[in-house]
Amino acid sequence: MATIGVELCDNGLLTASCDNDTPQLIEVADQNGATDWPGFCFAEGNKLTFGRAAEDNWFVHPRRVVHNFWARLAHEPSSLTAGMKPPSFSELSFFFLRDYAARLTATTTPLDRIVVAVPGAYLKDEATEDEKIGLLLGMFEELKLPLAGFIDMACAALCDPRATGFNPTLPVIVVDLHLEGADITLFNTDERLERRDFIHLPHFGSAQLLKQLTGTMGNRFLRHTAFDILEDGRIEQTFFRQTKEFLISESPEWRYHINTATRGYELVTKREQLAADANAFVTGLVQSVQSFIQHSPHASEPCTIALTARAACVPGIDARLRAAGFSRLLRLPSGAAACGAARIGAARLRVPPDIADVPLEKSVPLSEARRSAATRWDARLQKNRQAATHIAPTHAILDGIGHVLGSKSRFTIGLADLGADLPLPEAFNSADDCSVPLVHDHGRLWFVDPAPARAETPMTTNTTMARTAVEAGDRLTVRCGNTSAEILFAHCPSANGHRLS
Asked: pTM (2 decimals)?
């Protein structure tokens, strides 16, 4: 009997099955044979159509298509007119899930248990969580589906055994793309993989991006062929489908082809042009990631940025993240949250007798996460988020003793045997290469990430050493196994004309 993991993302529901310890994605076909299930609904009189078939009417009948019901899961009425009154967002979600579940049951039987990976926005606060999870519980009960648990989608994605592991000594930030916005989730990895901070960016969804790219590519098509795709909604829909396939395929080149009754029109375009069209979107998204890290009390640098497959296909995002100083990039496989949820469900979750007892998990033991082999030692800088002004430090303080940073080009923290300016305790001697460099450059002190060149995935090809400005009030934590040392950076004014030491 199979344990099913469902990735409840409106960009396209994904499903995995796990009979032992190895989950596998499974395809669930709709009435037309399509296996992608974007969160679209199309109304034709009293008839509602969902998924790919509904998305294929988006530009043809825009007023009869909605794609925000999963994002706005609630009892409030939608903008869709079907029958006597507009159905609510929750009703549309239920009908979508009913259609999907019927086809899933026909594909994989029997179902032992289902674990659902839910969007992080459903868990952003207690009131939202109670509403969204309560509605989902009611749906699964009504459909008589064997629900065993809910898990935060980003958390589940980091538990996919197919993924390249992350460094467990550093925080992990997952960036994901839904139809109506992007989710950024910060996980602490001290003892458990635990969700500690979250932000939803409502203007960075794939629906907005695809509509923008369809328009810019359509203008390019018009200049090249003198044919306007806006002439007919069906032609615009065909052009949209080709743009979406170009985006998700990550192909370096694409041939647009439009046929009319009289002739055909073609345009060959490069991915660099698609990246140029998406530049403003990517810039804003990367700036939001930077701002999130700077303002989160739980973030520290360096950290690992994990991109879901939906986010990673945005052209130029990996290069822009590296240019912003994020050298530790991890690309998660497609359906990572579905596979992670299925694996966790198969390992330890059971269907409770009362659906009200179905657990919701926002953290898991580190043993369930897909970790890489931990380095023997690591260092991370914790920025002082409360400082009103940013002052250059003069001293590094360890165990109550201040060490003058001075003005020479390099100040090292590490083993005494390596000639470090600030020697670490003897417990670090087992790490024979432990050395953390601080560099003076252009009047500022910089922390240099000691291991950015280590490729965590094939995606990380840039070997430029990542660095972060060090300011008074910042803390540097150096770890080796179970041993850790915390260095505080402070600004000490001169006393009687002499610098304190």
From this structure: 0.79
